[in-house]
Amino acid sequence: MFSYGVAPVVVTVVFVAGAIILFRFDRSWPSGLLLAGAVALFVVTFFDFAFGFAFERGWVQRTFLMQGCLVTPWLSRPLELIELISYSLFVGLLWYCARGVRKGLTPM
């Protein structure tokens, strides 16, 4: 796991905020997919940042969270599933793009 800093976490917070606002005004399948994907992406990104931060400082090396240099499977498997759920963000964006192309880009 690599910690790239706070920027990815801030970007995912912006995605979550945008998805919440969109879901509030348009309660449809694409907005639900966007919200679920944004929240899942935030969870994965925040875990990556927090775990990298703790790993660099030596806080998790001798805990039950690690097996040698690897994260234990009971923690890494759910995160992999959450990462798969985060792909629904892109499915929702694609759905909105298809909806926009189908309706036309300019209002009549």
Q: What is the helical fraction, as a range of percent?
A: over 70%
Q: What general outline do the C-alpha atoms trace?
A: elongated
Number of strands: 2
Radius of gyration: 17 Å
Q: How many H/I helical runs?
A: 4
Strand order of the largest sheet: 1-2
Count of discrete domains: 1
Low-confidence spans: none
The helix-strand sequence is HHEEHH
Class inferred from helices and paired strands: mainly alpha
Give an overview in words.
70% of the residues lie in helices and 4% in strands. By secondary structure, the chain is mainly α. The protein has one domain. Strands 1-2 form a two-stranded antiparallel sheet. The protein is elongated and about 60 Å long. The model has no long low-confidence stretch (mean pLDDT 82).
Any chance you could write out the topology, listing elements then pairs?
Blueprint: H1 7-25, H2 29-56, E1 66-67, E2 70-71, H3 73-85, H4 88-103
Antiparallel strand pairs: 1-2
Helix pairs in contact: 1-2, 2-3, 2-4
Keywords:
108 residues, mainly alpha, two-stranded antiparallel sheet, 4 helices, 70% helix, elongated
In short:
With 108 residues, this protein is mainly α. It is 70% helix and 4% strand.
